[in-house]
Amino acid sequence: MQLVLEKRVERSGTIALVSPLIAIGLTILTMVILFAILGKNPLLALHAYFIAPLTDGYSLLEIAVKATPLVMIAIGLSLCYLANAWNIGAEGQFLIGAVAGSWIAVKTQGTDAGAWVLPAMFVLAAAAGALYALIPAICKVKFGASEILTSLMLVYVADLFLDYLVRGPWRDPQGFNFPTTAEFDPVATVPLLIEGGRLHLGSIIALLVVAAAAILLGRTIKGFEIRVVGAAPRAARFGGFNANQLIILTFAVSGALAGLAGIIEVAGPIGHLQPGISPGYGFTAIIVAFLGRLNPVGILIAGLFLALTFIGGEQAQIAMKIPLDVTKIFQGILLFYVLACDSLILYRFKLVFPNREVTRGAG
Amino acid sequence: MWKSLLALTAGLLLAGNVSAASAADKLKVGFVYVGPIGDLGWTYQHDLGRQALVKELGDKIETTYLENVPEGPDAERSIEQLVRAGNKLIFTTSFGYMDSTLKVAKKYPNVHFEHATGYKRNPNMSTYSAKWYQGRYIQGLIAAKMSKSGVLGYIGSFPIPEVVSGINATMLAAQTINPNIKVKIIWANTWFDPGKEADAAKALIDQGADVIMQHTDSPAAMQIASERGKLAFGQDSEMIKFGPKTQLTSILDTWGPYYIERVKAELAGTWKSENTWGGLDSHMFAMAPYTNMPDDVKKMAEDAQAAITAGKLHPFKCPIVGQDGKPVECKGGDHLDDGQILGMNFYVKGIDDKLPGK
């Protein structure tokens, strides 16, 4: 008797729905075992991870703050991925957006520039992110260069460019030569939504982006084109859809969103430009996009869930002295199970009984 | 089934709260670390300080730490989480936490904060750091004595004043032994990256350096120097096990005494916002044993250490001539003042390199 994976004739709709739940269930089971081995009370640990952050207002707001850049970037990436365009460089587009927007903030510092500053920063950041994303897109369309490689490589270019600016021309003159710009003026800062908290306008913008993407994909011809080009390139060609044009478009949109997320993060929670403004948002967002199954609402949920694991992991570290590495193991295990369970959408388990005649003959 | 599970959860939670209540009369002290604790380096030394604190005052306090907290938007939340968990004195142990610490400090005026190596303060936020340049001066003396090629190799992390003042102190000391000494500098642009640090060490040795100094955290350079039969200095931690025949000495961060002193002040209700910049005299750092050198060099190093500790020798004694050949203004009487050293943004004469960003 043998257990084999067999391809399904049709993809299973039921499994597609329940597979994330199975994955989460298996993750929790594994974590319970891990906590027990570590000598921590599994129920208390799970409580610290998943329940405690959801039961007080402060943590809920922090989850929203943490999820904001992840969701915005992941929405853009999902459009690319749906259209079979592999933008891996959102981190670089995030940084370039932050740099471009900060340019206005730095240049208007200490002047009596008015309320136009912040909107101008947003526009410039989105434009810069889009232009930066167009480099790999155009290289792909014109020269057939792998967009995976070129977009990834441009991350390092952006990182070093930011580094140069804050160590050189944009360095805070009062900052003892440390690599940071001066704090942005109030007109160049993203307004807070709640006094005393950190929730800012960016979270609302992220929700609008989710809604816009849902409408684009569900209700418009362009959204249909994106999905067809990705799912059935041949059919798309017969339908007269231009795949190259879509690569350009989706790269530009995802670059713009990443750039916007970058300036919101810098002009929001950080308040100045410095090296290390992103703890890898552009890469984590790739995970968020796939966890959310490239669906806008799914991405919103996945972004919030991943943010929850960060906040919960921190609270578990404080409350139960559970090392940070366990949080990372936890995130890794979750992804592992999600991908593993997803294979059940297209495949199914089957028990195979060996043919007795053959067995006997061989014996 | 669900009911019993709920009851169990409730019971466990209540039990958790009870134990929290019994710990409530202990002072809670929090630490934010920039890296993993590991077994050597910057964060490890801070955790040694925390452990010394627990050993000394463990019956009166409870410590909590968050490790690997990035110096970006996450820092503010991590610090605030510690506040919300009831910590009354919080040490944030990396320069990049400066603005985040200040923001949280302004929000919670009843909690006290201590930020390592920064310059922004508040009535409830102190800063603390060490005069490592004193140790660099001693290393400069040793290096100039031990180098046969007359070329020192220096692995810089970032061109910030602390690192620049270390290079200058090294050079000023080395020039008193050998006026023609040369230093080759490579900026690794990282605090910890064994791969880059090893590459830097190889490149420096290939350029003729035979004594390697570093302002980065890993023992990689020590290992390369050891393989190539050169000499090297450790950083932050004791690194002798990575180069038993290579390490000359190492600057050891010793935060324990400071942490104990500050927590005692907090317990006594006498904590005040201060700017502590301690040197060899206040035990903010120490020198590892002087090894792999002749006795006369060892004696010279020990004498210099004693003179600096006693305040008789200042590494930045005037006159000091800048790289541009012009004398540096002497604001501290017969030596540079603290502000000039804390904001140091120039090379001294004899350094054949350009300061990045200048």
TrEMBL record, chain A:
It is a multi-pass membrane protein. The keyword Lipid biosynthesis does not apply. Pfam families: BPD_transp_2 (PF02653). Keywords: Cell membrane, Membrane, Transmembrane, Transmembrane helix. The chain crosses the membrane at residues 12-38, 58-82, 94-110, 116-135, 147-166, 199-217, 246-268, 280-308, 329-349. The keyword Nucleotide-binding does not apply. It is found in: Cell membrane. InterPro entries: ABC_transp_permease. It comes from the Bacteria. This is ABC transporter permease. It comes from Bradyrhizobium diversitatis.
UniProtKB/TrEMBL annotation, chain B:
Residues 1-23 form the signal peptide. InterPro entries: ABC-Purine-Binding, Peripla_BP_I, PnrA-like. It comes from the Bacteria. Pfam families: Bmp. Keywords: Signal. Residues 27-298 form the ABC transporter substrate-binding protein PnrA-like domain. This is BMP family ABC transporter substrate-binding protein. It comes from Bradyrhizobium diversitatis.
